[in-house]
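Lecture notes, continued. The same structure-token format from the folding unit now serves as the input rather than the output. Read the line below as a description of shape only.
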């Protein structure tokens, strides 16, 4: 393995390398599912770090790149320095047919002239280089491959790239481990490593304990780049499991109740492991104001939301009134983006929670703030609603039963039923439904009726009482 190339030396091989890759990456990056800047052209790159993991002058080369990607500022948006992305670029003379989908392009100039570059995670050999570096705790340039000494990493595990990634990429090693490679990276403590480590210290079995991780330090800043965890072999994705049960007309309430218990166990362990805070008027006022501001912006962007704006606003006003009256809530670290797709059921029936990164579009500092557990609970309630409306015909009664079972399961562990705090839960669910309306209007207009059905329900009932489950 080779050392890092100094990206600050603009006369070095790095500058020529990036110049030769520039036109290829400008075309390739926007086509990747994990690229967040879709809809705006890529105008250039600034190297953050370039590391040679396998020599690029050999039969198989491997480059690790951290690149800042520059794009035009969105109309009305503040100037932005550009997002930093993590890329693993394989280098070969020619690609075998099995790697054709991974092609980035053919380099015509610079140090890689005449070679072919491709997305390396599609290729088992480069992916296995990462696992071996984690196993041996390698230090390559500025990259630090670190691990939990209490967990064994066997040699020779065959790698395969998982399909269907969203904001990141995942590689499975021999049905033993799964490596989550973060694509858009930011400096700071990433909750996708921080929270599972904290839960492992608490002995919480609901979240796979991190086995190893990759990070780098650039100046005074630390970037978490990847996390390796045990792979739950044969596990069923909660979203797919729910849809399958719906399609067969089968009851899902037992699973929903078990999911409620799993969520509660994770929340309880996080509250033990990390500090909790009391949210009073000083914190709840800005929280309610932020929700109201998002509603105003959403109604401007999506006309279909405007008839419901006064009713939706009442949910946030009710929360602000309770804050004015001196009501307080406890906030703690939570999952931050909880839904059925973030839950796995093992063949034994055990539910696990995964992907603690939070909503990637939100700033890291915001994702690490303590939040009321109601935020996670609201996300799951919305997810049951989405599953029910994915069925033909929609099954709102199924969603109602699952939502009730989930809250009951949560109460079995904590002794507190989330439905007994309707104002806070309703505010978070309303805020989530508004976010969904904007997302679907922009990306999947055919799905817009799903969150709009929830919007109608939430906007037309008493915000101080649990929202009734009505047919859309």
């Amino acid at each position: 393995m080779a050392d890092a190339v100094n990206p600050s030396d603009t006369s070095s091989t790095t500058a020529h390398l990036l110049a030769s890759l520039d036109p290829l990456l400008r075309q390739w990056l926007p086509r990747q599912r994990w690229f967040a800047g879709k809809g705006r052209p890529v105008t250039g790159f600034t190297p953050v770090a370039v590391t040679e993991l396998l020599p690029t002058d050999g039969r198989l080369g491997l480059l690790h790149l951290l690149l800042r990607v520059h794009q035009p500022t969105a109309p009305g948006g503040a100037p932005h320095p550009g997002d930093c992305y993590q890329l693993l670029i394989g280098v070969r003379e020619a690609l075998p047919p099995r790697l054709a989908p991974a092609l980035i392009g053919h380099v015509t100039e610079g140090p890689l002239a005449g070679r072919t570059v491709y997305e390396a995670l599609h290729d088992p050999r480069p992916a296995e280089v990462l696992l071996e570096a984690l196993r041996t705790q390698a230090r390559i340039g500025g990259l630090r491959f670190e691990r939990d000494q209490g967990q064994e990493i066997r040699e020779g595990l065959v790698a395969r790239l998982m399909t269907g990634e969203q904001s990141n990429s995942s590689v499975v090693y021999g049905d033993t481990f799964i490596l989550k490679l973060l694509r858009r990276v930011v400096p700071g403590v990433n909750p996708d490593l921080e929270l599972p480590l904290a839960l492992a210290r608490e002995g919480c079995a609901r979240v796979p304990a991190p086995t190893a991780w990759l990070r780098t330090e650039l100046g005074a800043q630390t970037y978490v780049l990847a996390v390796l965890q045990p792979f739950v072999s044969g596990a069923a994705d909660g979203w797919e499991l729910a849809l399958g049960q719906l399609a067969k007309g089968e009851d899902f309430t037992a699973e929903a109740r078990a999911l409620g218990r799993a969520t509660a166990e994770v929340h309880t362990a996080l509250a033990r492991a990390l500090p909790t805070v009391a949210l009073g008027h000083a914190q709840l006022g800005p929280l309610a104001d932020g929700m109201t501001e998002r509603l105003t912006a959403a109604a401007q962007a999506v006309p279909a939301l405007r008839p419901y704006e006064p009713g939706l606003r009442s949910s946030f006003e009710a929360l602000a009134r309770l804050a004015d009256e001196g009501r307080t809530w406890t906030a703690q670290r939570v999952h931050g983006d909880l839904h059925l797709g973030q839950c796995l059921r093992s063949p034994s029936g055990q539910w696990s929670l995964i992907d603690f990164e939070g909503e990637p579009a939100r700033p890291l500092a915001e994702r690490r703030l303590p939040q009321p557990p109601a935020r996670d609970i609201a996300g799951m309630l919305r997810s049951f609603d989405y599953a029910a409306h994915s069925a033909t015909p929609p099954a709102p009664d199924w969603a109602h039963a699952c939502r009730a079972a989930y809250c009951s399961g949560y109460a079995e562990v904590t002794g507190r039923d989330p439905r007994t705090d309707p104002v806070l839960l309703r505010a978070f669910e309303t805020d989530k439904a508004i976010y969904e309306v904007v997302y679907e209007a922009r990306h999947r207009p055919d799905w817009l009726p799903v969150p709009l059905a929830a919007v109608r329900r939430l906007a037309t009932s008493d915000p101080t009482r649990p929202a009734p489950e009505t047919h859309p």
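Point for the exam: Confidence is low (pLDDT under 50) at residues 1-11, 468-472.
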